[in-house]
Specification:
Elements lengths: L1 H75 L3 H5 L3 E5 L14 E7 L8 E8 L5 H15 L5 E4 L5 E6 L9 E7 L3 E6 L20 E3 L3 E7 L2 E9 L12 H8 L7 H9 L18 H10 L4 E3 L9 E2 H9 L4 H13 L2 E2 L1 H5 L1 H10 L5 H9 L1 H30 L13 H9 L7 H8 L3 E6 L2 E10 L4 E7 L1 H9 L2 E5 L2 E4 H7 L1 H4 L3 E3 L7 E3 L14 H15 L4 H16 L8 E5 L6 H11 L4 E7 L1 H4 L11 E8 L5 H13 L2 E6 L2 E7 L3 E6 L14 E5 L8 H9 L3 H13 L14 H10 L2 H8 L1 H5 L1
Helix pairs in contact: 6-8, 6-12, 7-8, 7-10, 11-12, 14-16, 19-24
Length: about 775
Amino acid sequence: MDKLLEQQELARIKSEQDEFDAQKKEVEEQEFTRHIMEDIDQKKLKEQEKQEQQIEMDQFLEKLIPIAVQMKEETVSKTIMERVKNAMINTVNYTKIGQKEGEKKQVTGKLIDLTLVEDGDLCVIDFDINKKLSIEETDKIRKNIIDNMLPANVGLVKTAHGGLHAYCNRDGYTLPSNRCVKCIVLDNIQIDIFGQMFKYKEHGGMEQKELVQNRVVGPNSSFRETKNNKRETLKYEAVNDWANMTHLASLREILDSWNVDIEIPFKDYVDKVNMREFGWQITEEGTIDKMNDEIAQACVDGLKNLEIHNYPQPINMEVSLLSVFSGIYGITNEQIRAEGMKNIRQYNKLTPNAEKNYGEASFNGERKPNPWILTKILRYHNKDYYEWTIKPLLKQNYEVKKQQKISDTVQQIEKNEIDLKDPFTLIDVSSKALNGKYENKLELVAQDLLKVIKVVPCQNGWCFIIKEYDCIAGKNTIKYKSKTAIYDQLRSIRLWQDGKKHIIAIDALKQYHSLFEKIGMKFISNNEGIFSIFQGFKYMQLDEVDQTKIEQFLGLVKDTIAANDELIYEYLLNWFSFIVQNIGKKTETSIILQGLQGIGKNVFTNVLCELLAGYSSKNITDIDDFVGKFNTAIENKMLAIANEMKNFGESRMSNMDALKSINTESTFVINEKYVPKHEVENVVNIIIVTNNIFPLKIENSDRRYVVCKCNSVHRGDLAYFTNLCNSFDDDFYNNLFSFFMTRDISQFNPRNIPMTQAKKDIIKASISPVDDVIISHFKSFST
């Protein structure tokens, strides 16, 4: 029984607790609901108060506007001359120096001190056009600026060097400085903006308490300067009715149309100027880029969740309906423009006054189309979207434009090749730079450097090829240099000054490096991608050979070099004809001229080397120049003369094997100090000149050496050699070259070499003592 009572009591307590909890929960829910309703009412009240405040503000502005308009009208209705008449200072003696009080000097112009203009609203945009451009190019850019970058209602003055001063109203635009110098810098245009502003100090953004002197040269002013040792008088001239211009354009509208915003803190302004971030939409020709569809669509997509006002305040303060319409009407793609129009009301909140004046704002916006103003709206009022979407697109568009400009410039560069017959060398580049012939255009420098320099890949880096004059050969030749050597030469050629930086010839090579590159090099090639080392012979082929011009030399070849051996004589003429008629091909045989000194061997070889000037080495005296570590003496040489070589006999067997390899191998590796190691074609043919009876070892089976025992018939005959050598003029060389070029060698095989007694003697001398014993006792051994 007690247990039953206890259970009933517990049930009653639980029931009472549940009822209490339910009542408590109901009270809490009612309290929460009350708080929610109070919050909603509070927000509604705040919203209503805000709307009322906006209405009051709009009403206040509506009352204020006529007053502001009237005050502004009093200023803007004045002519430029009326506004600057008390701010003009005389210049004297054809200088830009202001006349001092009490001075009596010739007045030659006027300075306008913007700090003295009473209304403080006048400002000047200074377009400085590249002074290196021609008059025609300068005039074209200035006209483009007037037609494309400026509205009609600006005062225009042509500056002394063909630039432009555009007078407009600052109209409340807060410049970072009263002299915004080089705020926009392009290759052909530099833009400064001058106005009556306090100049910010760089540290802390504090303002100075006085206006900094800010002067520009007025129209009808003259000054003199000396250029190229010539005294010139230059003049500033009004382009339009400058003096009587009224109701000037707003600086804000002009900069907005360029998508330029310098109404920022001075420190940020300096950083952006240094990074050249202003003027991305301005072209080198003085026009404004059209907005492409990708950026236009992105801007329309970003025009959401904005509060749009009626009164056109500066965009960094609020979004006005006029600026939105101005931006959308500037979009050229009709579909994107229509979508933007639809989005204005669908995704944004318009103030009552904006709704009320919707039609009028649309009409005014259509009259002032400027798509780039949309990017400014998003920069200030949809910041995250601007940073993540719009800014990358603008940067991408700028980079594409920059690359396109480079591409266009590259297309205009003449792709010159090295021509050894053209006298132009690096000295001419230096001379043109000294005389200012390149007009601050690196592409013109690159165009000339292409006539002189080429770059090919080598085993351990780039190999630089340069055309240089060879005083010994008497013609331009090809030289190989390291990167360090070429860079040192090009750094010494100063082109012009860009601010504090010297622009030098190496800058042209670096910027247009790919134009100089070749995939490789061969001695002779018709492939434009391969550098052809052979650039033609020094002498020309004549239509007809005058035998009288060359008969004395041919007489020397026959009676001295061939020793009146007809077979040897014909072989020698055919051998050299093969070399000149088959450029880059080897005979795979060598000539040995054996005989006393002073008989005319070197007269013969010197003439042959002169015919191949630039592609011959006429006096190699060390075997190491052929087979040693640094073997440049035979690089790209069609003929090399080994003249009484030292060290040759010290290791006849190894030297013979090395020469055998040079005679037959198609390539060899060139090692040269300070130049990357590189492989070249072996085009060399060798003549060995010696008075040694045993100059090298020749095997019995040899098919590579033709040995000529030269005759000493003219030895000591000074008159003969004087007369002969005096005949070696250009006429002689042209006729001799033509003789070899037209000689019929269709049946000639260089490997079919004649045997001579002199060669037999060398073969016999080349037999080792052991072989000699075996041969002399051959019969006794056989029995």
